[in-house]
# Entry
Amino acid sequence: MYELPPLKRERDQRRKHGYVGSDDRSGRIDCQAAGSQSRRSRERDLRYNPGVAQTRRPKLGQHFLASAAYRRRIADTLELRADDLVIEIGAGRGAMTELLAARARRVIAIELDPTLAENLKERFRAKPGIDVFQADILAIDLTELCVYRECEECFIFGNLPYYITSPILHRLFAFAPWIRAMALLVQREVAERLTAAPGTRAYGYLSILAQLYAQPRIVVGVPPGAFSPAPKVHSALVDFQMTPKFPGWGSEDREKFLDFVKRCFAQKRKNLLNNLGGTYARERVMQALATLDLPPTVRGEELALDQLAVLFQRLF
# Structure
C-alpha cells in the first residue's frame, strides 16, 4: 500500500532546504535504486534505519482517542490545507486518519504496532489518498517521505505516547525545514511546559526546545474520558507553527545552543553561575551576566529565550 516512486531532484530539494541528515553510510535510501526495489523491500529500508539508535519499548502505552466529539473538534481545529501532505504519528485504529484524509490531499499513517498497521492497511486499501506504513517514527526519515511524495513540506499530526514524547519532539525538530506545521496531542503537563513563559514553574529546557523551532500554543484540552483506555492524566492538543527563532542559525548552532541550555537548567534550584561554573570559568560567566545587566544569582528559568541566546554567544 505504500509506494515510493523515485525522484530525480532529491539532491536539489535537500540543498534548497539546507537539510543535513542521514547520509548514504547511515542507511539513507538511494532514490535511483528505489525504483527497482519491491514495495516490501522499500518499506523494510525505511522502517529500519541503522543510522538511528533503536529505542527499546517495554510497552506502546497507547491510549486511543475514542470520543467522536473530540475527534471532530480536534480535526476542525487543525489548520490544514487542501494540498497538504499529512504525516500521522500513531494512527492506531484509524479514527483520526479518515478525518485527516477528508481535509488534505494525502495522509501517510505511521503505526508501530504490526497488528494495528495490518488492520489499517486492510481498512484503507480502497482509499487512494491514504498510505499506511508500519514503522517507528524515531527511525523514519521524514525527508524521504516528503521527497517521494513530491512535497516540499508536510503537516505533522500525532497522538504521542506519554513516555516517549520528548524523544519524538527532538526527532521531529531535526526535520524542521520539511515541516510546515504540527499538531500534537500530548500530556497536559507537557503541553504547559512546551508553551511556558520565563519565570513560570513549567518553564525549562523543553520550553526552549519548542520555542526555538516553533510558536507552540495549546488549542484544545482533552479529558481522560475521551480516551480508551482512559489515562490517569489530562491531555492537550498543541499547535506548532514552524517559525525558527533564529533563522540565521544552522543545525550545528542550534545543537550547541541546546546543549548550553541543558547546562543552564541542569539543576533548577541552582543559579546560572553554579550550573555553568563547571563548564566555564566563574569569572567569565559573571562577566557575561554583567553585560546583560543580570545579577550572579539569576536562575535559568528567569531568562527569556533571547537572553539565553545572547548569553550563549557571549560565552562561545
